[in-house]
Amino acid sequence: MRQDYPRVQVALCGEQPAVNLILFLETYAWIPLFPINPLTLQKFREAFVTSRAQDDGQDARYLAELVLTHSDKLKSWVPEDAQTRRLQQWVLHRRAVVDERTALTNRLQALLKQCFPPALELCGEELWRPLATAFLLKWPTLQAVQKAKPAVLRAFYHVHGSRSQTLIARRVERIVQAVPLTDETALLDTFALRVELVCRQLQLVTRAGADYDRQIAAVFPRHPDRAIFARLPGAGPVLAPRLLAALGAQRERYATAAALQCFTGLAPVPKQSGGQRVVRRRYRCPLFQRQSFHEYAKERILWCRWAAAYYLQQRERGGSHRPAVRARGYKWQRLIWRCWQSHTPYDDARYEAALRQRQSPLVALFKRIEGGKNPAKACSQKTLKTR
Predict the structure, then answer these.
(1) Looking at the DSSP assignment, which residues form a beta bridge with residue 270?
(2) pTM of the model
(3) What tens digit of pLDDT does each residue of 187-220 get?
(4) Are 90 and 219 in contact (CB under 8 A)?
């Protein structure tokens, strides 16, 4: 193809992401890649085929026609640099491991509710923790743990990091007083085997998650933009790499803060028909990126006084928790985008001084904010008292 057309570019479009193919073709500068959203192709096809008949060969022709006639409105895919792509892959797969751990935890919780309900209290709130999995592998049923001596139970909790004597005593008393749901051996053995299986899976997944954390901790400090995101209050070793991976290193990709807000799904979507106008949340967006900014906005409330004040302001205006957090994330994205574009780390004191200079109403709420405490709880308590 290059021999036949030595001086032209050959556009290549794909309906869905093909990572291996993209990595192979990105070395050819004369082949611009155009990723096409499947919904875009569907709407384009339905403009000509009202019966909604679908054929892969015809879809390929529609894709070619779409790129040929609307290339000025479509954005070609430009690869990130090697360091950014490496970090993006690490944080993306780490999140997949966390999601798998959550699914296994929910499965284990469902099993324990059927065969060993007291374990939900004896193993702590997070069943993926080493204490919980070790406890269930050692004593998968209530009958098994009731045979253990109190001294053995206290030693087990102490070895696995539970050092509160009051909590240990309450757990030991709970074991002694608990009544089994059933004494049928066959039923208990089948559940015990499944509990053992899920616990071992959780141990492997947790170990893999720790490996991903170590790899991210090794890759993140070597990135040129590390200082911008490491200085964000409340980001920490998990959210700072995720925010860097969400924005990448190409400043031209998000020319404005609004472009970032719309792409990541935090910007609302207005719909107007006649005299009716509705504003709702955005659903079609990369979920992992939206989740990263949403989780950071939630954590930021604990670490930033003006962020907590803004959250309280939204709640007192009648908003619920999630819309208030999304509004907080929407505002935070503009600040992160500005720091990212200007290569300048964020300065909390400087921003608070700007708020005071503009006489922002948030300044009056600063005295109601306690550092390290979630204002959501205070807001909920106030609502309950009012009711």
Answers:
(1) 279
(2) 0.83
(3) 889 999 999 999 999 999 999 999 999 999 999 9
(4) yes
